[in-house]
Amino acid sequence: MANFLFGRLLQSLVLLLIVSVIGFAVLHLAPGGPLAQFALVPGLSKEDLARMAHEMGLDRPLPVQYWEWLTRLLGGDWGHSYRDNRPVLDVIAGRLPATLELMGAAILISVLVGAWIGVMGAIRRYSTFDMLATIGAMVALSIPTFWFGLIVIYVFSVHLGWLPPGNRTTVGGDGSFLDYLHHLIAPAAVLALVEVAIWSRYMRASMLDVVNQDFIRTARAKGLPERTVLWHHALRNALLPMIALAGVEIPTLLGGALVAETVFTWPGMGRLLLDSLGYRDYPVVMGILMFSAVLALLGNLLADIFAAVADPRIRMA
Amino acid sequence: MQGTLSPARVAMPAARTAAEAVLNVRDLSVTFATEKGPLVAVREVSFDLRAGETLALVGESGSGKSVTSLAIMRLTPSAPRVKLGGSVQFTDGKGRTRDLLTLEADAMRGIRGNEISMIFQEPMTSLNPVHRIGDQIAEAITFHEKTGTRAALERAAQLLDQVGIPDARRRLSAYPHQLSGGMRQRVMIAMALACNPRVLIADEPTTALDVTVQAQILELLKELQSATGMAVIFVTHNLGVVAEVADRVMVMYAGAIVERGDVVPVMTRPLMPYTQGLLHSVPRLDPEALGREPLEAIPGNVPDPLRQPPGCAFAPRCRHVEPACEAAMPALEEADGGRQVRCRRWRAIDEAQR
């Protein structure tokens, strides 16, 4: 296990390096720059802009800039935001809890609801429920998140007035747990929709695969009641591939969070990334990129560890 | 070891003479609904099984032997896709006789794994990979006998010991992938015997094992049978195994019984051309047969179950065929020595071969 972890750590470091190189290159090669917004400001000449670029170090060759960014990062300095000069780490730390809250809720919904739909669909294959679930999953997968978010706001906030249209808490409210929860429902549901669809499909396939295995017939031959056969013998096996899926789905969820946060004016990392991209706030964008990469790698590592814990065949190997 | 068995079972004579029938199967039919129409996998199979005896069910792949055994356990997929016909009268330990085919699902579960158990062909995949083998054995005991987990595990250890697994107590916490195929089949047998069944259905239990292990498992089954007095239905296509274990043989072809009787007459003087073909296709190792003539095979294939010939199902492959054979399905006739054969020409064929 120690060897395995060490190997994975080394792999992860190499991956992070690659991510940072690609991210840095693409970000800087994109047209425009942090100073583009000042181009049309009266009173600022081309020379002024060039001087500012020089002061910010933006006129140097890209590899040199990258090297400086990297060495500083390794020294623990994530740089400062171009916009308000706050340390990048502070900026991200201020937004991270909101994103983790949203993602956590979405994961919980998608795993519980998606897995349940999948299992029921597999048990009652080709039933009305299964048909509806299949169609529903296709629809959910085809709906763009931002459009669905707007529809939810239109129906539940504007028309019915049940849910707040955005933000994490009521401005000037009491900040109670229920207030947080009330604000969380809509964005979490919107973010979870696609994931529920994905989980239900994978879960159904995995469950169907398992219920046709010989050991399920053995369990039935023992005379066990159907619910023991399904929930004790089949589900435990059907969940094993789902653990890997959870690891893979974390980056997808991060991408979805970006959209959901924008639609629901959720004060998380996703919206921060979008704003920072608009300003070409290179240090913050790179910071978020590295954070997301670490989160994705961590998710995969955790998935592997959990898989080893859950499957005795891997545990021994 | 013997302490795990109830005294009544041990006292029961292992010999089949005068023993009461535990299973009376009458006109058992299994029909699968397919897209191309109904597929009759088993047609009107009738037989009795007495306590302590071993009945071998023999046939090629697709002959309906496995489906027959699954139908007795009602482990075939449920209606409307599969229809079971006929009756399976089972007499339990308390002397009650009930038809398994019409029994309620709940009552049927009380019989499965308790009074009738089953072991399967593939020991490698028949055990749940994520549960410890001790728990998998104990599960049936706690469910059927309402004992506590501790007592059930204690029993599981005794059973593992009884089926010849060394260091049984420690093996309780092993996972299936840590055991070899032969060991896993022993675990399956321990699981099947957990509740002292009256009937054990063994569906090709040695087919997936190598020959030396095969012999050990057969020996083990014989020992356990003589100790418990249970009846065994042994499903196999291996005639060597039949000679080894069976008291009576039932040969199936295309879903129907074509010949049955005591093992010695059927194996030494088969009447039905199909049984003869089966026996001739067994490789022989005695010096007389070695290197003399090529191994005989039965020409052709098993008929498509969706397009059964109207007459004898074996007629298209039979070397003794005559036009009457293809007109109507022959009945199962009484032949000498308490045997039955489904062939209109058996007398003539038998005569010619003497």
- Overall body shape of chain B: globular
What is the CATH class designation of the largest domain in chain A?
Answer: Mainly Alpha
Largest interface: pair, residues per side: A-B, 22 and 29 residues
What's the total helix number of chain B? 12
What would you say this structure looks like, in words?
The complex is a heterodimer of chains A (317) and B (354). Chain A has helices at residues 2-29, 46-56, 62-74, 88-123, 128-142, 145-159, 177-211, 214-221, 226-238, 240-263, 269-279, 282-310, 312-316. Chain A has 317 residues and is an all-alpha fold. Chain A folds into two domains: 2-58; 95-316, MetI-like fold (Orthogonal Bundle), CATH 1.10.3720.10. In chain A, α4 packs across α7 (177-211) and α6 (145-159) crosses α10. The model of chain A has no long low-confidence stretch (mean pLDDT 88). In chain B, α8 (211-228) links the parallel β7 and β8 (231-236). Chain B has an eight-stranded mixed sheet, sandwiched between helices. Chain B is an alpha/beta fold. Chain B folds into two domains: 9-115 and 199-300, P-loop containing nucleotide triphosphate hydrolases (Rossmann fold, 3-Layer(aba) Sandwich), CATH 3.40.50.300; 125-194, no CATH class. Chain B is globular and about 65 Å long. In chain B, 31% of the residues lie in helices and 23% in strands. Chain B contains twelve helices and twelve strands. Chain B has helices spanning 7-11, 65-72, 105-111, 133-145, 149-162, 168-171, 181-193, 211-228, 239-245, 263-268, 273-280, 346-353; strands at 21-34, 37-50, 54-58, 82-91, 97-99, 116-119, 199-203, 231-236, 248-253, 256-262, 333-335, 339-341. The chains are: A mainly alpha (317), B alpha/beta (354).
Layout of helices and strands:
The complex is a heterodimer of chains A (317) and B (354).
Chain A (H helix, E strand, L loop, with lengths): L1 H28 L16 H11 L5 H13 L13 H36 L4 H15 L2 H15 L17 H35 L2 H8 L4 H13 L1 H24 L5 H11 L2 H29 L1 H5 L1
Chain B lengths: L6 H5 L9 E14 L2 E14 L3 E5 L6 H8 L9 E10 L5 E3 L5 H7 L4 E4 L13 H13 L3 H14 L5 H4 L9 H13 L5 E5 L7 H18 L2 E6 L2 H7 L2 E6 L2 E7 H6 L4 H8 L52 E3 L3 E3 L4 H8 L1
Parallel strand pairs in B: 3-8, 3-9, 6-7, 7-8
Antiparallel strand pairs in B: 1-2, 1-4, 4-5, 9-10, 10-12, 11-12
